[in-house]
C-alpha cells in the first residue's frame, strides 16, 4: 500500500510517528507563512502542515496544488496547539508536519467545486457523478446503504434464510408495470424481460423446498417518471414456506430493527402497529398514511346526506361518500383557492368550505342547506370549533378519500403542523384483491396476481371481483410505502381463477404462466413474503431530499443518465444482428 494510514485513523496516540498519507486535496490555507492543506479520503480529513522555514521548496510545491489533486504526503504526527484542536472530526487533535510530497495525479479544472456543499444543479451533479460522490455527505449515504444491507444479511442469515440469486433475463409476465424488453440475438423475434421483481422465481424456490429465501434484488420497471421512483431499483426480496402474515411481520420487523440499531444506534419499538386498508383510507385518505400528525378525515356522509344540498344528496343516493377535514383557525382566501385547485387536479368536482362562526353557526356557499340541528351535528362529528374551517368533498370511494388525503397533507404543510419526531412504522393490511381500471372499468390486481384472496371471498371471484379482499400487506414508514407483500396463491386452479378475473384468457394463461402453474401442481407448501425497497429505506434513514442521493449512479426523472448518455441509439449492425428494424415517427 502507498499509505500507512487512512484519513480517519490518526489520533493523539500516534504522536511522533512517521506516516504516509494519500488522498485528495480538499482545501488549503496560507496562514502567516505556514501552509495548511486538508487531505481527504472517504474515511475523513487530516490537516497537513508545510513549513517554509524547514523546506521552502516543498512548501512552494504544496502551494501549487489545486483542489482534488491526488497526492502522497509523508511526515511526522504532532499535536495541534490547544486553540486549534477540533472536536468535530476524528483527527482534530493532530496534524502531520510534511517532509515529503508526491503528486500522484493532477486534477483538471472542475465543472463545479467539490468542496462547496451542493453548489451545482442536479443535472450537472449527475453528469459528473463521480465528482459528486467525492463529497463526504454522498459517501456517508452510500456507507449507510452498505451498513443497511449488511445488517439485513446478518439478521436473515441468523434466522436460517438462504441468499439465492434469480435470473435477470426472464419471461415477460404482467406484474403491474411495463417490462423492459431485451431482444434475443440467438432466437430472433423473441424477447427476454428484465424482472419487475423475482416474484415467480421466489415462489418456485418455495416449490423446490428451499423454505427460507432472500435476495438483495435488482428490479426494473418501465414506469412513468416520479420523484421517488427509479427505472432500476433495489429491494429486499424475501419468501418463507409454511408462513402466514404474522410470520412475515415478525421477520421483517427484526431485520429493520437490526438496520436502525447498526445505522443510527436506535432501538425500534416492536411490534409495529397495524391498520387495515379501509381504516387507513377512512382516517387518512391514503393506504400509506403519515400518522405523525393529526388532521384526520371524518366521514360525514350521513350528516351531509340529510342536508338539502343537491350535490351531497345525489352523492349519497348513488352510494358515494363525503369526507371532511378541519383547518384549525380557518383559512385565508388564497389558501382556500390553493386547496380547491389541488382537489380539482386530483379529480374532485370541488371542495365545500364551512366557516364556523360564533354560536356554532356555519358560513359558506352550502351552509344554507344545513339546518341549525344539522349544523350542530356536523360540528360534533368533525370536532370543529369557532374560527375553524371545515373542508369537505363528495364522490365515490376510494377516490374521494384519496382527494381528501391530498388535501390533508397540503393543509399540514400550509399550517406548518409539528410532526411527531422519530420513526413511525405501520403495517397496512387487508387490501382489496382488485381495483377498477380507470380506462377499461375492469378489475386489475391491487398488488399482483399471485396474491391470495381471503378464503371467505373466493366465491365472488367471478361474480363480484371488486368485493374480494386479499391477504396483502404494506409496510409504511413516516408516510412512505417501503414495500408490499402477501400470502401467496399455492393452488393452481385458484391461480387460474384469479388470472381469469383480470382478463387473462386460458390461452394466455398457458402461454405466459404454464410453467408456473405446472410447478404449482406438484405439491406446494403454503408460503408468504415481502419486498421492501432498499433505496427508499436508506433515503429515509439518511434524511436527504431525493432518493437519487442514496443511489451511486441514478437516472433522472426522465429515466436518462447524463453521465453516460443512456438511453442512446445503437448501430444498424447491432439491429440487424437482432433481426430488428425501427419504425419511429420523426
Q: Could you characterize what this model shows?
A:
- Helices cover 30% and strands 23% of the residues.
- The chain has 586 residues and is α+β, with helices and mostly antiparallel strands.
- The protein has three domains: 12-105, OB fold (Dihydrolipoamide Acetyltransferase, E2P) (Beta Barrel), CATH 2.40.50; 139-275 and 425-558, BirA Bifunctional Protein, domain 2 (2-Layer Sandwich), CATH 3.30.930; 293-415, 2-Layer Sandwich (Gyrase A, domain 2), CATH 3.30.1360.
- The longest helix is centred in the N-terminal third of the chain and has 23 residues, at 136-158.
- It is globular.
- The two termini are 55 Å apart.
- The mean pLDDT is 94.
List the helices and strands and how they pair.
Blueprint: E1 18-31, E2 34-41, E3 44-50, H1 56-63, E4 70-79, E5 94-105, H2 122-127, H3 129-132, H4 136-158, E6 162-163, E7 181-183, E8 191-193, H5 199-207, E9 212-220, E10 232-241, H6 245-264, E11 274-276, H7 277-284, E12 298-299, H8 301-305, H9 310-317, E13 321-327, H10 333-345, E14 352-356, E15 362-363, H11 372-382, E16 389-395, H12 399-415, E17 425-429, E18 434-436, E19 443-445, E20 472-477, E21 480-487, H13 492-501, H14 506-520, E22 527-532, H15 534-542, H16 572-578
Parallel strand pairs: 3-5, 6-9, 11-17
Antiparallel strand pairs: 1-2, 1-4, 2-3, 4-5, 7-8, 9-10, 10-22, 12-13, 13-16, 14-15, 14-16, 17-20, 18-19, 20-21, 21-22
Amino acid at each position: 500500500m502507498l499509505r500507512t494510514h487512512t484519513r480517519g485513523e490518526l489520533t493523539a496516540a500516534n504522536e511522533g510517528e512517521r506516516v504516509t498519507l494519500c488522498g485528495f486535496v480538499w482545501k488549503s490555507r496560507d496562514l502567516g507563512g505556514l501552509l495548511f492543506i486538508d487531505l481527504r479520503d472517504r474515511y475523513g480529513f487530516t490537516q497537513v502542515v508545510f513549513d517554509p522555514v524547514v523546506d521552502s521548496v516543498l512548501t512552494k510545491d504544496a502551494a501549487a496544488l489545486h483542489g482534488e489533486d491526488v497526492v502522497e504526503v509523508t511526515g511526522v504526527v504532532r499535536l495541534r496547539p490547544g486553540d486549534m484542536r477540533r472536536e468535530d472530526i476524528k483527527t482534530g487533535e493532530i496534524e502531520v508536519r510534511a517532509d515529503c510530497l508526491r503528486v500522484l495525479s493532477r486534477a483538471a479544472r472542475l465543472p463545479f467545486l467539490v468542496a462547496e456543499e451542493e453548489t451545482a444543479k442536479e443535472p450537472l451533479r449527475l453528469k459528473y457523478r463521480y465528482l459528486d460522490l467525492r463529497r463526504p455527505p454522498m459517501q456517508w449515504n452510500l456507507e449507510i446503504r452498505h451498513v443497511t444491507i449488511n445488517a439485513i444479511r446478518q439478521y436473515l442469515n441468523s434466522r436460517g434464510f438462504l441468499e439465492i440469486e434469480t435470473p435477470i433475463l426472464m419471461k415477460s409476465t404482467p406484474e403491474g408495470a411495463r417490462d423492459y424488453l431485451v431482444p434475443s440475438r440467438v432466437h430472433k423475434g423473441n424477447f427476454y424481460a428484465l424482472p419487475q421483481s423475482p416474484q415467480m422465481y421466489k415462489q418456485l424456490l418455495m416449490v423446490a423446498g428451499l423454505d427460507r429465501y432472500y435476495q438483495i434484488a435488482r428490479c426494473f420497471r418501465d414506469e412513468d417518471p416520479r420523484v421517488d421512483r427509479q427505472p432500476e431499483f433495489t429491494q429486499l426480496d424475501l419468501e418463507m414456506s409454511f408462513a402466514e402474515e404474522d410470520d412475515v411481520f415478525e421477520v421483517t420487523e427484526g431485520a429493520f430493527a437490526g438496520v436502525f440499531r447498526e445505522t443510527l444506534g436506535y432501538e425500534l419499538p416492536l411490534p409495529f402497529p397495524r391498520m387495515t386498508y379501509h381504516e387507513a383510507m377512512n382516517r387518512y385518505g391514503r393506504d400509506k398514511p403519515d400518522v405523525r400528525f393529526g388532521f384526520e378525515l371524518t366521514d360525514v356522509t350521513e350528516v351531509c346526506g340529510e342536508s338539502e344540498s343537491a350535490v351531497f344528496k345525489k352523492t349519497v343516493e348513488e352510494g358515494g361518500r363525503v369526507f371532511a377535514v378541519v383547518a384549525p383557525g380557518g383559512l385565508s382566501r388564497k389558501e382556500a383557492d390553493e386547496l380547491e385547485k389541488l382537489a380539482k387536479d386530483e379529480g374532485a368536482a370541488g371542495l365545500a368550505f364551512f366557516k364556523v362562526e360564533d354560536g356554532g353557526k356555519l358560513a359558506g356557499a352550502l351552509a344554507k342547506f344545513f339546518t341549525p340541528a344539522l349544523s350542530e351535528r356536523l360540528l360534533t362529528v368533525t370536532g370543529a370549533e369557532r374560527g375553524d374551517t371545515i373542508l369537505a368533498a363528495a364522490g365515490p370511494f376510494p377516490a374521494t378519500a384519496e382527494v381528501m388525503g391530498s388535501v390533508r397533507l397540503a393543509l399540514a404543510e400550509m399550517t406548518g403542523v409539528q410532526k411527531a419526531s422519530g420513526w413511525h412504522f405501520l403495517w397496512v393490511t387487508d387490501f382489496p384483491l382488485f381495483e377498477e381500471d380507470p380506462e377499461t372499468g375492469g378489475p386489475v390486481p391491487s398488488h399482483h396476481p399471485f396474491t391470495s384472496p381471503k378464503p371467505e371471498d373466493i366465491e365472488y371471484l367471478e361474480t363480484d371481483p371488486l368485493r374480494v379482499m386479499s391477504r396483502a400487506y404494506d409496510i409504511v414508514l413516516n408516510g412512505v410505502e417501503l414495500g408490499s407483500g402477501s400470502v401467496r396463491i399455492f393452488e393452481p386452479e385458484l391461480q387460474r381463477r384469479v388470472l381469469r378475473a383480470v382478463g387473462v384468457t386460458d390461452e394466455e394463461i398457458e402461454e405466459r404462466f404454464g410453467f408456473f402453474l405446472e410447478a404449482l401442481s406438484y405439491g406446494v407448501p403454503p408460503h408468504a413474503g415481502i419486498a421492501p425497497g432498499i433505496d427508499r429505506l436508506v433515503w429515509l434513514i439518511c434524511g436527504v431530499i431525493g432518493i437519487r442521493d442514496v443511489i451511486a449512479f441514478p437516472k433522472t426523472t426522465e429515466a436518462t443518465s447524463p453521465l453516460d448518455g443512456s438511453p442512446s441509439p445503437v448501430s444498424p449492425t447491432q439491429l440487424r444482428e437482432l433481426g430488428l428494424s425501427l419504425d419511429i415517427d420523426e
